Amino acid sequence: MVTRVLNLKDQNLYSDHIAKAAYALREGELVVFPTETVYGLGANGDNAKAIERIYKLKKRDKEKRLTLMIADADDVKKHVDHFSGTAEKLMKFFWPGALAIVFPLKDGSDISIRFPDDTAARDLIRTAEVPIVTTSANISGYPPSTDAQQVLMDFKGKINIILDGGSTRFRSPSTVLKLKDEGFEIIRHGIISESMIRSCLENTLVKV
């Protein structure tokens, strides 16, 4: 397999590159794309074989969930039917941004959702018109990739497309938070600290 690296900084080809990556996702291929935190490895969430490839490629524990990325704030309502006061505060303050929220669902399961603060990521999701599930673009246990060259070291010849947006803005992973009743649990520590989250919920954190 030849891995195509498509340069998103070429504005003349930006829309074409996004369209090619979106088509690849719809067809069940894997695509790596930049976010504001680290590069994400994405698949069509409706394609079981594509999801299986992500776990195999990353050597990822099957117990570890993938995160659904959305392109617009209202898209969360397509997947979650009830929002606690805690959830509403967190979404209002930190979205779009580097916080993935694990929402409880009525059937007793849950779902991890992130609304990224990155234009290319959101353009890709909108253009694909299928649910995009993601995880960081690296072999499990190794540091996440923050530029396309790092991705190539792990996945050259193993994935179809890398959207190269240069170095990511924060060069550090997002925080993953699980909602529990009116409280929360940090599943993965990242850019957004627990103290920031608590300050938000206590209405003492000022957004800048």
Question: Could you characterize the architecture of this molecule?
Answer:
- The protein has 208 residues and is α/β, with parallel strands linked by helices.
- The chain has one domain: DHBP synthase.
- It is 29% helix and 23% strand.
- It contains 6 helices and 10 strands; from the N terminus they run E-H-E-E-H-E-H-E-E-H-E-H-E-E-E-H.
- The protein has helices at 14-26, 48-58, 85-94, 119-128, 148-155, 194-201, and strands spanning 4-7, 31-33, 40-44, 67-69, 99-104, 110-114, 132-136, 161-164, 175-180, 183-188.
- Strands 1-8-2-3-7-4-6-5-9-10 form a 10-stranded mixed β-sheet, with helices on both faces.
- A hairpin with a 6-residue loop joins strand 2 (31-33) and strand 3.
- Helix 1 (14-26) crosses helix 4 (119-128).
- The protein is globular.
- The mean pLDDT is 95.
Q: What topology does this entry show?
A:
Layout: E1 4-7, H1 14-26, E2 31-33, E3 40-44, H2 48-58, E4 67-69, H3 85-94, E5 99-104, E6 110-114, H4 119-128, E7 132-136, H5 148-155, E8 161-164, E9 175-180, E10 183-188, H6 194-201
Parallel strand pairs: 1-8, 2-8, 4-6, 5-9
Antiparallel strand pairs: 2-3, 3-7, 4-7, 5-6, 9-10
Helix pairs in contact: 1-4
**What distance lies between the first and last C-alpha atoms, to the nearest angstrom?**
45 Å
State the total count of DSSP E strands: 10
Radius of gyration, in Å, reads 17 Å
Low-confidence blocks of residues: none
Spatial shape: globular
**Could you name the CATH topology?**
DHBP synthase
Largest sheet: 10 strands, mixed
The number of domains is: 1
CATH-level-2 architecture: Alpha-Beta Complex
Strand content: 15-25%
Q: Biggest sheet, strands in spatial order?
A: 1-8-2-3-7-4-6-5-9-10
CATH class descriptor:
Alpha Beta
Average pLDDT number: 95
Instruction: Specify the helix fraction band.
Output: 25-40%
